[in-house]
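FORM 7B - TANDEM STRUCTURE REPORT

SECTION 1: FIRST PROTEIN
SEQUENCE AND TOKENS:
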Amino acid sequence: MQETVRIALDAMGGDNAPGEIVKGAVDAVNARENIHVFLVGKEDAVRAELSRYSYPEDRIEIRNASEVITTEETPVMAIRRKKDSSIVVAQTMVKKGEADAFVSAGSTGAILVGGQLVVGRIRGVERPPLATLFPTTKGVSLLVDSGANVDARSSHLVQFAKMGSIYMEHVIGIKKPRVGIVNVGVEEEKGNALVKETYPLLKECGDINFTGSIEAREIPFGGADVIVAEGFAGNIILKLYEGLGAALIGKIKDGMMSTARSKIGALLVKPALKETLKTFDATEYGGAPMLGLNGLVVKTHGNAKAKEVKNTLFQCAVFKEQRINEKIKELFAKKAEIEE
């Protein structure tokens, strides 16, 4: 029997809360017996949404939180002042061990700040990064950092590479995942000061499979399994990737509907095209976990709908089953022993 994973889900975060968030939770518990969800938010609103569905009532609970942190608020001030917000209440549950994971589509800044101030970092982790899975022609790759730390040092990037490798090996199942650092060329001497300083450090790491620099054009073709960057470049890559993907899919659909002949062709290729496009649907892969915290914190897209919420809850279950946090703690404990 699978071990139950307890997830504190921010029912008030995101553009489609609480409706799509609640539906995602219901879909998840109906699909898997090892998921228990705490819906954290304004009780009346959450209960009204829940009343629309049938689900195992012993695996969804409501935790009232009277406040909501909006995207317009300053993250640090909001976390400190709004102690009864859905984000703070849910992350406190993780800190206290009442929940194994926290998931939210709400304010990215507040989630990141709360992750560090409320949940706390694993000892030895300098900066927890956001790790985002995205589709490539070879499967999926992990971009780390995808936006948590817009300024970073070389030591941070080395840690990103190590934690990202653990995630890819044990969650995705890729043995010795290839690690590449984002650069403007593949030659070792190229890059800005940060990349030039980080490259030899990654090259010396015996516990990762570093394959050198990766240019942005190679990312969609699966040029590396773990793609390392500071959060500024990483977030630009991610947003461009998502925007371009949506634009291309839109153009393909428009082209297929442009003439009577193309419409007939569209009917013939629709099943195969639908299956192909599914592999490039970011919602299939869940949210972006913050690696290196004392508990799992996962950020989903602000416009997340039920499908992405459900898949993110599934992702949390795999994270726990594969003991990702324990493996990261072991990694940094060994590092501390060596340094002592």
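SECTION 2: SECOND PROTEIN
SEQUENCE AND TOKENS:
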Amino acid sequence: MLIDFSTITTAEKQQWLNHAVAPRPICFASTMDKEGNVNLSPFSFFNLFSSQPPIVIFSPARRVRDNTTKHTLQNVLEVPECVINIVDYDMVQQTSLASCEFPKDVDEFVKAGFTKEPSSMIRPPMVKEARIKLECKVNEVKSLGEEGGAGQLVIAEVLCMHVDNDILGDDGKIDQRKLHLVARLGGDWYCKVDETNLFKVPKPNTQLGIGVDALPKGIRNSTILTGNHLGMLGNVHELPEINPAFEDERLKNIIQYFSINPADMENELHKYAAELLDSEKITEAWQVLLAGDND
């Protein structure tokens, strides 16, 4: 299916993109106008873009239906400061409630049941219930257009960060398992980050991976190993060799029972290697695969 964006409406573009470009972190922004009126609103067009200087960007885009601008955008143009309160699962329903388009004189902190907490370096208050708060100065607001749906990029520099001690690990850093972040998908859909869906992908930070193209042909063209499996195997910095000291009872049984039929033995070895890779046992998987590799 090909979707030509020149032939569809802005609302349709938004619908397709919101489902495809996801999950998106949520910027729960507290801002203030020049009279001191506070606004609190969530935005999923948001991310981290620089560490030095520490820059985050979110976009209170012009409304698609009537091309009006949001109070958050109006506020940061008057008072170039904001707090980005990071949303976790315990506050997602209240955060959604704060997205209602209340009149400008209505305080979303009150409507959504959140508690104001004074910031350390800027004027807008923080959301006390948020486990992470970023106090920011707004360096620039860059408009991407004047039509409905046009992004208005708020380029914010992080001045300081407040972190709840309850989400820290023994090393004094944020423990990802203790912070149940939520993110926006398309429509009414969200997703929750917790230990049931967390996984690690080792990064080849200091040494280059050999790559999928360097894998032996029989492994590279496997009908059993998936692209993820091949990516894990290609992430080693040099092609492993058979380790004579490696002992594995299941491997011995596979070789014993399937040795008369090389194709069947290869399938069994690849099935076993896939199980090992799914358990992140990459070294063992390599030994199993090398036992049957004839290339």
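SECTION 3: OBSERVATIONS ON SECOND PROTEIN
The radius of gyration is 26 Å.
The longest strand covers residues 132-143.

SECTION 4: SIGNATURE
Preparer initials: ____
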